[in-house]
Every structure is written in C-alpha cells, then in structure tokens.
Design a protein that fits this description.
- There is one protein chain.
- The protein has about 280 residues and is of the alpha+beta class.
- The chain has 2 domains: about 5-140, no CATH class; about 155-275, no CATH class.
- Helix content is about 35%, strand content about 30%.
- It contains 9 helices and 12 strands.
- It has helices at about 85-90, 90-100, 105-110, 115-120, 120-140, 225-235, 235-245, 245-250, 255-275; strands spanning about 5-10, 15-20, 40-50, 55-65, 70-75, 80-85, 155-160, 160-170, 175-185, 185-195, 200-205, 210-215.
- Strand 1 (about 5-10) and strand 2 (about 15-20) form a beta hairpin.
Amino acid sequence: MKLGETRIDAGVVSFALQHRYLDGGAPHTQGAGGRGGNPPTQGVCIQVVGQVGGQETELLRFDCFDDHAHYHYGPENQNERIMLDPIVTGNPIGWTLKQLRIHLPAMLTRAGYEDLANQFDPELVSQKLPEVEATARQMEVEKRDNVTHNRGEPIIEAGNIRFGLEMRTVGPDGGPAIHVLGDVAGQEIELLAFDCFRVNPHYHYGPRYKNERIFIDQTVVPDPLGWALDLFKSGKLPTMLERAGYPTIAAALDEDLVADKVHEVETTLQAMVEAAAK
C-alpha cells in the first residue's frame, strides 16, 4: 500500500501517517459491500516504516478506522491482519499509541523484522510518539471525508426527525432522494441519506460524520426507492440511526408517528417521480 506522506522520523524506523476513506464501491464496478473487498469506513492510518534490503518497507500498519479498525503485521511479507474490538480497546488511535510505546520491539519481531527490532532507539521513539499522536488526532478531525447535501423540499416533520425529499441530478445520474434530518446541538444535521438513483443508487450513514456510503446492487434490489421505504416501514430506522452515530436521536424516535409519516413520504415521492417523468 502507498505510504503516508506525513512522516515522523525516529532513527531506523519512521512513522508515516495518512487519512484513508474506503467507499462502499458501486456494485457494477467493485462489488457490493466494499472496494476490493473492504467494508466502507474511514480513519487515520499509522504505518511503521524501515529500510529492508535497501528498500523502504511498511513493517506494521494500524488502520484506526471508525468501523472495522485493525492492524497488520508485515503488510509486505506475511500480512497478518488482526481486527480490533472497540468495546475492549476503546479509541483505536489511543490503543495504537499504547502498543507503540510498550510493544514495538515484539511487534516488529513478529512481523519478521527482528534485526530492526534490535537496532531501533527506544528513547528516540518515545520522544517522537507525542508528535505522532498529535498529528494523528489533528488528521482525524481535519481530513475526515463527509458530504453536505441539500436538505430537500418538501420537508415532512416526524417528531424529532424530519424527511427532506427531492429529485436529484448528479451528472448523468439522478433520481429521488430522501434526507433524514435531525437537530444536534441546535443545528440541523443530515443523519441518513438515500440516493435512489437510476445508475448508482446508494445510501449514506452519517453524511456529515462517518459518511459511510454503501451502494445498492440493482440485480438484487431492482427498486431502490421501494427498498428504502420498506426499511422505514419495517422499523429499521432506529438501528440505522444508531449505526450512523446518533443513538440519542434513535432512542427518542416516536415510531408510531414515523410510521404514519412514511406513508406521506411515499405518496409525495411517487408524485415527484411522476412529475419529473413528464
């Protein structure tokens, strides 16, 4: 994998940092569920780099993602990947820095680089790690990939959430869109978005936060708009809001009211689709 351009040298090893965004991948080009088999997510990548046989080599990699955080021993040789359990490890950047402080020699040895493990200067590494952490924390905030959509018109109120509806056009693609909106710290935020497009339909968890975008395979979901409405009708909205990062809003939903309003959402969108087709 390409090494991060932000570098912090620490003797025989250095730390390369970058922010990675893994899109959900359009089904007809990448396969539903992830680009190259990866689930959609994003976060800071911390790579431990050193010279091996005269070549700059990625020795360890820590993918501190929002979801599916993990790390690799020897990505360029054995590529042993181990997943992190966020309930146990907590924040993946904090966990990674702890391992680099305590276990770096043992981890380098397990990755197949015992010579480098015996050569590196632990005092120098320890001096550099605060800079690594500060850089990673800043990158996590400033490099986050998110999108800001229009809120839609009309707006259908449903208690502590509202549905913004529109017919969107994005280049040669487009179609009906549903924006699930709510108020966070006094500001209206798009919590979920469903772009039921003709060519590449997809949906977003937390467009302004996680922006986890997942494409819909029309071979198995030929009617993306009907599919999205069925999610609301079958009670999936609270769970989806939780996954998007808004558990408080999910817990406060008036599900009976939402169920009543979904019918209005459906009839309004059907009229908008028919009008656009004329």
